[in-house]
Write a structure and sequence with these properties.
The chain is an alpha+beta fold and 291 residues long. It is 21% helix and 32% strand. It folds into 3 domains: 39 residues; 132 residues; 93 residues, no CATH class.
Amino acid sequence: MSEPSDLLAPLRAVEPDERTTVDIGRAIRTGKRRKRIRNGLTALAAVVLTVVALSPFLVRPSPPPEPAGPAEFDVLRQVVRVGSAAGYHGMSYQTGRYQHTILLARAADPVAQELGAITVHARGRYPGQGGPGWAPHGQPAPDVHGRRAVWLDAGGLLAWEWGDGAWASVRLEPSFPDMRDRAHRVAQSVVPTADTPVRVPLTVDGSTLRQVSLVGVRIPLRGTGDLGGLVFASNDEPTAPNAVVVLEEDLAVHVESVDAPLMGVAGEVIDSVEAVSDPANRDNWVANPVR
């Protein structure tokens, strides 16, 4: 009987037709390396999928901040737009550092006369305003543009928070049975703007603004009897004594009012007020009346 080693002898003697160029050791090492890479990529993909799945729980987007009302206004820019509502429309718009006032008239009246007003206060400037969360005295009212509103105990019909920490109010005349509903509709017609520049038909000599300064301008919204005005005072407080110079519809410059404390100091300023060239053409009105 032959030994097993003798049976394999003929196979050992056979040479392959071609010599292989494959390095067996290298192939084994490469295979191991590729396996490690595949395993690593699989693990990485699992981590990515886990993070994506959990991201809504790990990262919660912050809600957009409420727009804060400005602490003061630019006296040469309009901060709200007022539409017609409840039978009222805007008659004139007067700017100021801490409040803007829109006088209202009845839409049905053939001659415009003041029968109400909207007062828009800068942040923290509503009379008697306190700290965060403060509201005027009164009873809760339906919100205005999604913001808090109050039926006022005094000083008007309705107040609402038109910007974060900034309040506005509306008063109306004469008395109607549905005055609250009318006031709320008027408030809903007040829409904040992106600081719209105002243009006026008057200018003042800036060199005269020493003891008093330009604290506001007035522009017509409908027929009011004048084409615009300049307001002068010794400080920016709404209650400060002031002088108002307007341009009448007949294109004459007219001193509308001068409070007693300014009698001796505003004369030079008032005398320097002039109408722009051809004021009947609104294209000639100016955004900055100080020349």
